[in-house]
Structure formats: structure tokens, C-alpha cells
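Homework help thread (please don't just give me the answer)

Our assignment gives two proteins as sequence + C-alpha cell strings and asks us to describe the second one. The first is just a warm-up. Here they are:
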Amino acid sequence: MEAVEFSEHGGHVGGTGAAGPPKKVLVLMRKAPYGSLYNWEGLQVLLIMGAYKMQGAVDVAVAFVDDGVFAITQGQDSTLLGVKPTAKTYPALPDFEIDRFYVDEQSLADRNLTLDDLVIKVEVLDAAGMARLLGEQDAVLPF
């Protein structure tokens, strides 16, 4: 996979400069929502990528794996940490044209979570489905 470059003329992979179909970009959320900046930074990237998607430059999706599944769980209370709960932002992503959400089946099971525990509707993928999703991307941005 190559890095995605963005300019005022849109996104393209590998510096070819060729206009074409939107590049497929997957933001891979792997870390818990608190204790590091990974999740917050990934969320910021998603908001920015939404602007590029609106311009037709990229096709953005989000996958939650490992402790990243905690980012979209209901009932988060981060007041003692002095930060806003990130889970409240994910349901707003469709307003930025980010509406394809995936979650790793085993990550949910390992953390005793079900779809009812999540704040957004996701497509659950098994290991083969997740591998297929990753392989279809022009770029994967891990957080």
C-alpha cells in the first residue's frame, strides 16, 4: 500500500497525479479511547477525510479492532479524566459522509460486547472478512 497524497485537486496514490475513481482509505481504530491520543487523532482524521470524501477524492471507511471497539461503546463517562467522551462523535460521522463502519467479530467477543453495546450500526466481519476489507484498500491509516 502506498501513502495517499492530497492536494487542492483531490487525493491520489503514489504521486501519479492521474484523476480517477476515489481512492479507498480505511481508518483502522485499534486503541482504547482513553489513555493515549490514538483514538482522538483517528477521529480527527475521519472528520478531515470527510471533507475529501465530499469532494469525491476518497472513499473512507472505519474498522474497529482490538481495544478500538471500546471507542464506540455506550455509557462512556470520561468526566474524571477531564475529557469529552469520544463515543458521542461517532454517530455524527454520517453527516461528514463517513457511513461505512466495520467491527472485528473476535474483538467484540473477546471483550464480552454485543452490537447492542455500540453507539453506531456496524457490519461485523470475521477474520477472513477483515482481511478482505484490508486488502481492498489503497491506504490503511492505523490508530
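The one we have to describe:
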Amino acid sequence: MNRYIEQLIEDLQAARKFAPKQRSRNEMNEEEIWDELVEIDKIIDEEPDRPLQNIFGIDPASFPPIDKLTTEQAQLLSAKILELWAAFNIEASYPKNFPLERFYPMLVEKFRKPFMYFPMGITGIEFCHYEPEECPFGDEYCMCKEWSVEMMNKIEDEVKNLDPDELPF
């Protein structure tokens, strides 16, 4: 199994060479920025969502089932998947203290799911819908409750600071 995992890691690293080259906003003139915004609109309007396997060229069936891996192997593969995603400017949203070996099956499953990918900027992947009862990270690692409280506090603060004379209704 170790040799297979080494080969899979080589495939993940090889896929990184297909990552789009990005320039920072500081390196672009105003026209290039507008062109990029038009391209983003075009992707949203015209491009179908594609599974990550199509973007990276790696079949999720290539990944061993979690029950065939040691904790260390699952952690290593998770880290390499996240590195590949980062090369494509795809950012996974998950609790930073969540064990990578438990994250592995979630990451592999995302290879199968339709995804709207933008080759410019950063694209986020959510694993949670911010409903504590359905949190895939479980009670111990759930970010939902904290996020819900923060959002409610922000909304309450904004409502308190509204000027009734400036409301459109």
C-alpha cells in the first residue's frame, strides 16, 4: 500500500502543473481587471459546474478507502489534496483543528461533486451548511454555533445602528 500511496502523491503533485497562473491585482491594469470580471460573469452564466476530478484529472476511485489506510497515511493524503487545491487557489473551509484523517473521506467525496471553479482569484469549498444539527464535523469541532452567534450579533448591531429616516420603506 505504501508504494501505491507514493504513486498517488506523485499524481497529486503532477496535477499541480496544470494550475492556472495568476497575477495579483497590483500586476494588472484596469482593463485587465475588467476583462477578468467579465470572464467571471461568463463562467457563472455559461459554464456548467464540473467535478474536481475533471479539473485535476484525478479519478476519486484512485483514492483508497479510509479503512485501508493508517492514520498517518490518511493525514498525508489529506494534506497533499489540500496542497493541490491550494495550487489551484481552491480553499477548503473546515475547522483548523479537525483531524486530517477524519477529513480524508470528505475531501475525496468532493472530487465527485459538481463545483463552480474560477481560474482567477480564490474559490472556496464549503463542507458545512452552517446548521449545527447537520454539521459534518460533529459537536466537538462544529464552527456553526460560533458562526451563528457572530452573525446574529452583527445583524443586531447593524439593526441598532440603522437610521429610520434613511430606510427605503
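TA reply:
I won't write it for you, but here's a hint about the kind of observation we're looking for: The radius of gyration is 20 Å.
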